[in-house]
Design brief:
The protein is α+β, with helices and mostly antiparallel strands. It has 20 helices and 22 strands. About 50% of the residues lie in helices and about 20% in strands. The strands form 4 sheets. Strands 10-22-21-20-11-18-19 form a 7-stranded mixed beta sheet, sandwiched between helices. The chain has a 6-stranded antiparallel beta sheet with strand order 2-1-3-9-4-7, with no helix packed on it. A 6-stranded antiparallel beta sheet has the order 12-17-16-15-14-13. The two termini are about 30 Å apart. The model has no long low-confidence stretch (mean pLDDT about 85).
């Protein structure tokens, strides 16, 4: 509980004790003067001002700024009216219980916000640089890529980089939600925001702090609350018109109806005050965004960042999900499985392919270079050019070498026997003739099949895979995972076209999501209704373009987020129906004089508390 909340609690307790004493004295007849003016008015005014001075001040300030119609205004007018007709105890009760509701609401918001703001603690305060045999602490912003930092046991890793010395267990729970630490040793990449568990590490920084993982996450978290769901926007618009309408309705009750139907002015003013108390829209205005905030917080607990409540709402409506293959459903850890020579030896085929791919950092290129296993003298390579969706053309020791797929061979008029092996096939040609074929295998990610089955269970009707790989390789992966549809041999632009085709077929009110990790996936992530990116190994462009980020690349968590989003939306709709239903009923009763001020307090504060308690259930949404 914050200091502000503690001070409010003290005010509430003090007011409650005074109120209980005054009410007991009035109802038992021990202090009969409490129901008279001006003695009773003055006695009840003291605790009323103690508990309600800030509400009156806010209402007056807002009126001065032209913002008349809000809950502070309604509370002020209703309680002033109750004092005016001699209902002193009711006026104090309304303000007291309204403040109880506000305290409860503030506490609930703090609880739900905590689940997200805990992530703000991942921001490192310093980085250790070694100078003249001693460590100095510097601001992470002052560390440039290429510099070496030292991370001691128990410290938070301040910047992304590669371990060059040391071995340790890294706690990634703050980012990924995973409780099991990961081992990090020389050659492994580590990301900022994680905690170094056991040993000292020397890390060569790969990104400036502003481009680091932790900086990106903080930016996403800070902006998450700014993007509202359709339901939230509806409630905002509703409250904008609802409050003036009920204020006018109260004025009609107090002034017009006595002239039409007769009766005492005090009775009609009392009805108007009851009407105002009932009509306060607190339950809706607070519980709806609180519910979405809780849902976003529940997702962050399992290592999934949702960039706004509008995206959480969209996930709840998702019925089609489209996956990129490499790095999303498969590991992207390519290994040369087979080399088929055609006129040249296997070693020569690998050499030509390795040199032509020498400047590329693509996983396929890296696997070929690893299989060749010898240092490359890249001065032998000239005019290396990557041809999108086909492969690479390079001049190696004066010979024109082509390494790529069948399209590359066909474009250059090179005859080749199609390879039917399962995997990624790279055809290698030298000076216009086929030199050989390299088959590269990529394993399906652990849990990918389980993820597809879980998505089916939560109501995702269609699962689709898009791949730049050969049809045979893509079909093999799709069959293993149980996907409904697969489209292969696609260029990056083709993936966008396929997503657009699928979007055209989507029924109204249903959403399509695309899951990818590469820089070439950014256009598709943007085009889909919901873009889901891999945060751990995904590219910055993909993460920037996405609406949802999986911090540990575990696609099984998508089904969990669907469950969280649907539970959140269900809770929000329950609150709307409950709040409007109770208020409508008690408003009618109040207008006809069949509801008193205590029932009005329940219709306002009681409904708010129940709705807030219900909204907090979204925080407990889990993987199950």
């Amino acid at each position: 509980m914050t200091d502000k909340q503690k001070k409010m609690l003290v005010r509430i307790l003090a007011t409650f004790l005074l109120f209980a004493g005054l009410l007991a004295g009035e109802k038992t007849g021990a202090l009969p003067w409490l129901s008279t003016f001006p003695a009773g008015f003055g006695a009840y005014l003291v605790p009323y001002l103690l508990i309600g001075y800030d509400i009156i001040w806010k209402a007056a300030r807002n009126i001065r700024h032209g913002q008349v119609f809000d809950e502070n205004f309604l509370m002020m007018i209703a309680t002033f009216g109750a004092f005016g007709v001699g209902e002193y105890s009711e006026a104090l009760a309304v303000m007291l219980f309204y403040q109880v509701g506000e305290l409860f609401q503030n506490y609930a918001v703090s609880r739900s916000r905590q689940s997200i703001t805990e992530m703000m603690n991942i921001c490192p305060e310093y980085a250790n640089l070694e100078e003249d045999g001693r460590l100095i602490q510097v601001d992470p912003d002052d560390v440039e890529p290429g510099m070496v930092i030292v991370v001691k046991a128990g410290e938070r890793i301040p910047l992304d980089g590669t371990v060059i010395e040391g071995e340790s267990m890294i706690d990634t729970a703050a980012l990924t939600g995973e409780s099991v630490p990961r081992r990090a040793a020389a050659g492994d990449e580590v990301i900022s925001g994680c905690v170094n568990g056991s040993g000292t590490l020397k890390v060569q920084v790969s990104k400036a702090f502003e481009d680091s993982t932790v900086a990106k996450i903080l930016e996403l978290v800070e902006n998450a609350g700014s993007k509202k769901a359709k339901v939230e926007n509806f409630i905002t618009r509703f409250a904008r018109y609802y409050t003036p309408v009920v204020t006018v309705g109260a004025a009609v009750l107090a002034v017009v109806l006595p002239l039409v139907f007769g009766g005492s002015w005090g009775e009609w003013v009392q009805r108007a005050c009851i009407f105002l108390v009932i009509s306060c829209p607190c339950a809706l205005v607070i519980s709806v965004p609180l519910g979405f905030f809780g849902g976003i917080g529940a997702a962050s607990k399992i290592g999934v960042l949702v960039k706004g409540s509008n995206f959480l709402e969209a996930v709840a409506e998702m019925t089609t999900i489209v996956f990129d293959k490499t790095g999303t459903l498969t590991k992207g850890e390519f290994k040369v499985a087979k080399v088929v020579a055609a006129g040249r030896g296997e070693e020569e085929v690998l050499r030509l392919a390795a040199y032509s791919e020498g400047y590329s950092s693509h996983p396929v290129s890296n696997s070929i270079k690893a299989a060749y296993g010898k240092p490359l003298d890249l001065e032998e390579v000239r005019e290396a050019k990557e041809i999108a969706g086909q492969g690479i053309r390079a001049k190696v020791n004066g010979s024109i070498v082509l390494a790529g797929n069948g399209k590359l061979m066909e474009e250059n008029g090179i005859s080749y026997p199609p390879c039917e092996e399962i995997g990624t096939v790279v055809y290698v040609a030298c000076d216009g003739e086929l030199a050989g074929t390299i088959v590269i295998s990529d394993q399906v990610k652990e849990g990918a099949g389980e993820a597809i089955r879980e998505m089916k269970k939560v109501g995702v009707k269609k699962t689709v895979m898009l791949s730049g790989d050969r049809q045979a390789a893509a079909q093999a992966v799709a069959k293993e995972l149980g996907l409904d549809e697969v489209h292969a041999q696609l260029l990056p632009g083709d993936k966008v076209k396929w997503v657009e085709k699928l979007l055209e077929k989507q029924p109204k009110g249903q959403r399509l999501a695309f899951v990818g990790d590469g820089i070439n996936d950014a256009p598709v992530l943007t085009r889909a209704d919901i873009g889901i990116a891999m945060g751990s190994m995904g590219s910055d462009a993909a993460i920037e373009a996405a609406d949802v980020v999986l911090m540990d690349d575990d696609v099984r968590k998508i089904a969990s987020v669907v469950k969280i989003s649907r539970k959140t939306l269900r809770i929000v709709k329950q609150n709307i129906v409950f709040a409007l239903g109770v208020k409508a009923l008690v408003l009618v009763l109040g207008a006809f004089g069949m509801a008193n001020m205590w029932e009005a307090v329940f219709a306002d504060v009681g409904v708010s508390v129940i709705a807030i308690l219900n909204a907090m259930r979204a925080l407990k949404a889990s993987k199950s």
